[in-house]
Design goal:
This protein is mostly helical. It is built from two helices and no strands. Keywords: Coiled coil, Membrane, Transmembrane, Transmembrane helix.
Length: 135
């Protein structure tokens, strides 16, 4: 990638995603164990209550997975746009570099032509001014 963000940048992004995933997994497990501990210690919870809590937990888990998938899709789209913009930027930079080189060559040529013109004027000893084009 442009700007030195090659493998190291991607590795950092993957590590950050893995840390976030591990943290979410740990938090989900903690919530599950807390619910389980509360159900085990509270005799007023019936089997129906436990099933209802399990359904709610599964529903919340599915919603969280859907939201995670949405955010991942958004991230992927933004990442792809960023990649395209980086590619365009590198092309523009390459073009500008080529143009700058060409400009330097043209300046050198211009200086050479000026020196040759002055040399020819001196050799000619002409009193008539030479017609030149305006820059």
């Amino acid at each position: 990638m442009v700007g030195g963000r090659g493998g190291a940048g991607r590795r950092q992004e993957r590590q950050a995603l893995m840390v976030a995933f591990a943290l979410a997994l740990l938090m989900g497990t903690a919530v599950y164990f807390r619910i389980w501990a509360r159900q085990s210690s509270d005799p007023s919870f019936t089997v129906d209550d436990r099933e209802e809590l399990r359904r709610q937990f599964e529903q919340a888990n599915l919603e969280a997975m859907d939201e995670s998938a949405e955010w991942r899709m958004k991230y992927d789209k933004e990442f792809e746009k960023n990649k395209q913009l980086q590619d365009e930027l590198s092309k523009v930079k390459a073009s500008l570099t080529g143009t700058a080189r060409r400009l330097e060559l043209l300046k050198k040529d211009n200086e050479m032509w000026k020196r040759q013109t002055e040399s020819l004027k001196q050799q000619c000893n002409c009193s008539l001014p030479l017609k030149t084009t305006k820059d």
